[in-house]
Amino acid sequence: MTVSNSSQRIKAIDIVKSLLLVILPLLSFAAFNPEIASTETNDLALPQEKHLRNVRQLTFGGENAEAYFSSDGKKLIFQSTRDGRECDQIYTMNIDGSDVRLVSTGEGRTTCSYFFPGHKRVLYSSTHLGGKQCPPKTRFLKRLCLGRL
C-alpha cells in the first residue's frame, strides 16, 4: 500500500464516520415522523408491535439492503441486486419509493453507500476497478462449531 492510498483510505474512513453521526439521528427522525411518512401501512407490522409506526414497503423484487436517508430526509440510498444485474449496485429513490435511479457504475459489486451532506454527491465501495464482472461469492459458514465434534 502506498502512502497516498493509505491517506486516502483514512480520509474516506473519517468521512464515513462523520456521515454516520449525521445519518443515524435522521434515520430515527425520518422513519418515525408522521409528517415525513405520509401514509401508514399497519399490515407490515405484527399486531403485537407497539413501537413502530408508519411502516411502508418501498422496494419489491430483487435483493435490497443497507438503505440510508439523505441529510434532508427526502431520499434514500441503498444497495440492490435488480434489473437483471448479478451484483449489488447502488440506487437512490425518494422516500415514497418513486424515482429509483442507478448511481453506481453498474459494474463489479458495490456496498456501503452514503449521501454527502447536501446530498449532491454519494460515497460507496465498489470492486469495479478490479473487473467489470461480479467477484466470486464468498462461502458463508453454515454453522460455527466450537470444541470437538
Oligomer: single chain
Largest sheet: 4 strands, antiparallel
Number of helices: 1
| Structural class category | alpha+beta
* SSE topology string: HEEEEEE
Average pLDDT taken over every residue: 75
Radius of gyration, in Å, reads 18 Å
The share of residues in extended strands comes to 15-25%
Provide the number of structural domains: 1
Describe the structure.
The chain starts with a helix and ends in a 23-residue tail after the last strand. It contains 1 helix and 6 strands. Residues 24-40 and 141-149 have low confidence and may be disordered. By secondary structure, it is α+β, with helices and mostly antiparallel strands. A hairpin with a 6-residue loop joins strand 5 (110-115) and strand 6 (122-126). The chain has one helix at 3-32; strands at 63-69, 75-81, 89-94, 101-102, 110-115, 122-126. It has a 4-stranded antiparallel beta sheet with strand order 1-2-3-4. Strands 5-6 form a two-stranded antiparallel ribbon. Helix content is 20%, strand content 22%. The chain has one domain.
What key phrases describe this protein's structure?
149 residues; alpha+beta; 4-stranded antiparallel beta sheet; two-stranded antiparallel sheet; 1 helix; 20% helix
